[in-house]
Design goal:
It is a single chain. The chain has 145 residues and is an alpha+beta fold. The chain has a single domain, classed as 2,3-Dihydroxybiphenyl 1,2-Dioxygenase, domain 1, CATH 3.10.180.10. It is 17% helix and 30% strand. Strands 5, 6, 7, 8 and 9 form a 5-stranded mixed β-sheet that branches. Strands 1-4-3-2 form a 4-stranded mixed β-sheet, covered by helices on one side. The longest helix is centred in the middle third of the chain and has 13 residues. The radius of gyration is 22 Å and the shape is elongated. The chain starts with a strand and ends in a 28-residue tail after the last strand.
């Protein structure tokens, strides 16, 4: 629903490095830079911007869409490795809905970040059946007349 968001941070270089690492598993990266602004998003456009300046005293909660549960897990691992603090390990939050899979961290400026996947778990492909004895893969057996 939100087209884009700009967030003021204390140290732009530190935050750009942090978000570059944390958002990469979710499929986002730096897509635009101008003046003191750095935009993160997809090839389509930047959706999330950071700029240096005074930071509000009240922390902000920001949730990023993740394409899979594995991406949520990677977001969490990268966030902790990049200096964030744990605020809720990856897992289901069924109070929200049955497939709400999320991880929560507190970033380097004290804001709350979340990565969330709303999809059910990925289904594994059924095991392939062996070919019938004597059947050639992709070829029909010729009959003799």
């Amino acid at each position: 629903m939100i087209d884009h968001l700009t967030r003021t941070v204390r140290d732009a270089d530190r935050s750009v490095a942090f978000f570059s690492r944390v958002l990469h598993p979710l499929g986002y990266g730096v897509t635009m830079r101008f003046a003191e602004y750095v935009g993160f998003g997809t090839k389509a456009k930047p959706y999330f911007w950071v700029k240096a300046g005074g930071v509000p005293t009240t922390p902000m909660h920001l949730a990023f869409v993740a394409p899979s549960r594995a991406a949520v897990d990677r977001f969490y691992e990268e966030a902790l490795a990049a200096g964030a603090q744990d605020n809720g390990a990856p897992g289901l939050r069924t109070d929200y809905h049955p497939h709400y899979y999320a991880a929560f961290v507190t970033d380097v400026d004290g804001h709350y970040l979340e990565a969330v996947c709303h999809l059910p778990p990925a289904r594994k492909a059924p095991p392939k059946r062996p070919l019938a004895r004597g059947a050639a893969k992709g070829k029909a057996k010729k009959r003799r007349r």
